[in-house]
Every structure is written in C-alpha cells, then in structure tokens.
Design brief:
The protein is built from 12 helices and 10 strands. The protein is of the alpha/beta class and 300 residues long. Strands 3-2-1-4-5 form a 5-stranded mixed β-sheet, with helices on both faces. A 5-stranded mixed β-sheet has the order 8-7-6-9-10, sandwiched between helices.
C-alpha cells in the first residue's frame, strides 16, 4: 500500500459493511462529505460490484488530492484480504496512504479508547481488542455460514426457524411469523424455505428482517424477547473471550446497528458481562467511521 503521501491534506474514512459502504471525507479534521453506497466488501459482493460501488462513492465524496484513506471492513483476516481491498481503492486516490483494517478497530477508536474490546453487532458480528502492550485478539467474525451469532443475519434466520418450527407443530402463525410473511411477500411459512435458499434474497435481505424481531419483542412477543436476549449473551461471550485473551478488564464497547439501537439487546449484553465480572461496558455514541481521525493520528 502506498505510504509516501503527505501527512497534510484530505483524509477519507471508509466503513465497509455487509450491506453498505459509508465514506466520509475529512478536511482539516472536519467532515465535509458523507455518502453511502452499496457494499464493497468482496466477501458479500463480487469484485466487479465492489469496484462499481467504490467508484460511485468516490465520485460523490471526491478522490484526487487525498493524503490518507483509512478503511475498516468486515472479513479482513489476513494481509492478503487487506491488500485486495486496498487495490480496489487505490485507483481513486493516487499517491494516498491506504490502510485497511477489520471494521471493529474503527469502533474502538470511535469509542475514544486506544485499548479495550470492540464488539460489532450489525449485519454480522465480531469482537476485536488490543491491550497496552499492543497485542491484538479477536473472537467471532467467521461469517454467516460459520457464526455471526447475535447479528442481524442471525436474528433474521432465527425468525425463519421459529416460523418453520411452529408450522411443523401445527400451530398458526404468530405475531413474528405474520410480520415475516408480510415482509417477504409470502402467504405460508412453508414458502420461507425456498425463499431463504434463493439467490434472490441472501445475507443482507435476512439481516434486514432483524427489525421484525425487535419490533415484536417491544410489543411483548416472548419468543422474540428470548431471541434478543440470546443475541446479547452471544455477543457478550465474544467480548469475554477477547478480554480474557488480552488479560485486560475493559472497556468493552458495543456498536453497529443492532448494538447502538436496541436497548433490550444492550441490557442482555451488560448483564451477561457483569456475570463474568466485566463491568466497564459502553455503548458507542457515534458512528464507527468517526474513529478514523484518531486512528490516523496514532499512525503519525
């Protein structure tokens, strides 16, 4: 990755999730452009679609005279993963220094911490942390086929499973199933099976159905409440694993869409961590992408 750009000039932060790519252009430390397009994570879309989305994004926020690009993305597990994404970004910012990290690193910085554990609870889930010795550790982040417990996708899939179990038991659709069928345009739970496996839906579509579980739980639907409680406990387990690996006490910072916006999940998360004697637990109050300036400063 290029590293010879000047330390002055525009900085672009990218937060690349499974559903969207958000880009913020900072000039003199202030955001001057903030745009979102489709995902450019090649674990979720083709390289061609990722390239198109990045081209659209840079067309909106501007490329050209940029000193640094700092990108956080899910699924950045190896140097090769980071290099592949940097290669897609590079044509839009000639000469810029490009840094690509796992997106949980943005979250920790946005929480105002240089050490601690960040937990992503969005389309997918993962925990990442760093201690005072600079050692890093991760838990989860295996992708939806192997894990992503507590994520939006997990909640959407569990809503489908709940509906199918009721069908097998000869029970009528309940509040959650009725909402799910309406959202999917289906008239019977049995049709969810083919729809779930169809290429017309996919990971992002089912992650978006998590909102139905949240809404049903808020309306008093006990099975939905249980699902959100389990999501919080699963996310807490990822955090606790990472805390133990690093030998620290915290802080643990919960972020991303579900983590920042679902109080019931936050309560379950805090309760589970308290049972593990982890009490410095915070919910992120600003979007992870705004941690970019701190991370750029730490490089200098």
């Amino acid at each position: 990755m290029p590293s010879d750009a000047a330390t002055t000039g525009a900085v672009i932060g990218l937060d690349i999730g499974g559903t969207k790519t958000r880009g913020v252009r900072f000039e003199n430390g202030a955001p001057v452009a903030d745009e979102s397009v489709g995902s450019s994570n090649v674990q979720n879309v083709s390289p061609e679609e990722a390239a198109r989305n990045l081209a659209e994004l840079f067309g909106r926020i501007g490329g050209g005279e940029v000193a640094q690009v700092y990108a956080g993305a899910g699924g950045i597990d190896t140097d090769d993963d980071a290099a592949a994404l940097a290669a897609l970004i590079a044509p839009h910012v000639p000469g810029a220094r490009i840094t690509v990290v796992h997106d949980s690193r943005l979250l920790l910085a946005a929480g105002g911490a240089s050490t601690g554990v960040a937990v992503i609870a969005g389309t997918g889930s993962a925990a990442w942390g760093r201690n005072g010795r600079g050692e890093e550790a991760r838990a989860g982040g295996w992708g939806y086929l192997l894990g992503d417990e507590g994520s939006g996708y997990w909640l959407g899939r569990e809503a489908v499973r709940h509906s199918l179990r009721r069908m097998n038991q000869g029970l009528e659709p309940d509040e959650l199933t009725t909402a799910l069928l309406a959202s999917c345009g289906a008239d019977h739970p049995n049709k969810l099976i083919a729809l779930f496996h169809s290429t017309a839906t996919g990971r992002r579509f089912w992650a978006q159905q998590a909102r139905l579980v949240v809404e049903a739980a808020d309306a008093g639907h006990a099975p939905s409440q249980a699902l959100i409680g389990q999501a919080g406990r699963d996310l807490a387990d990822l955090a606790a694993q990472t805390v133990r690996q690093l030998g620290i006490e915290g802080p643990v910072i919960l972020g991303s869409g579900l983590g920042m916006n679902v109080p019931r999940l936050q309560e379950s998360f805090r309760t589970a961590l308290a049972a593990a004697d982890i009490t410095d637990v915070r919910v992120l109050e600003q979007e992870p992408i705004f941690g970019v300036l701190q991370l750029v400063a730490e490089q200098e």
